Amino acid sequence: MDASSSLLSGYFMQPTRRSYSKPFKAQVIQECAQPGASIASIALRHSLNANLVHKLI
C-alpha cells in the first residue's frame, strides 16, 4: 500500500450511529415534561440535536 491509498483508506468509512441507554432517554424525556422546559435548551445541555429530542418524545 502506498502513502496515497493509506491516507484515503479512512476517508470512506461510514460514521457509526450513537446509541443512548434507556435511562438516559427517560431522563431527557422527563426534563422535557417539566413546565417551561425548552427542547432546544435541553438538547444543548445534553449535546444532542433538537430533532433527536423531538423523536424521543
What this model shows, in words?
The protein is elongated and about 45 Å long. Helix 3 packs across helix 4. It is built from 4 helices and no strands. Helix content is 56%, strand content 0%. The chain has 57 residues and is mainly α. It has a domain at 18-56.
How large, in whole angstroms, is the Cα Rg?
18 Å
Q: Which structural class best describes the helix and strand composition?
A: mainly alpha
Please give the number of β-strands: 0
Give a quick account of the main beta sheet: strands, pairing sense, barrel closure: none
Q: What sort of overall outline do the alpha carbons produce when their principal axes are compared?
A: elongated
> N- to C-terminal separation?
48 Å
Q: What is the percentage of strand-forming residues?
A: under 5%
Order of helices and strands: HHHH
Low-confidence stretches: none
Count of helix runs: 4
Average pLDDT: 82
What is the helix fraction of residues, given as a range?
A: 55-70%
In short:
The chain is mainly alpha-helical and 57 residues long. It contains four helices and no strands.
Q: Keywords for this structure?
A:
57 residues; mainly alpha
In terms of topology, how is this protein built?
Layout: H1 3-9, H2 22-32, H3 39-45, H4 50-56
Pfam families: HTH_Tnp_1 (PF01527)
GO molecular function: sequence-specific DNA binding; transposase activity
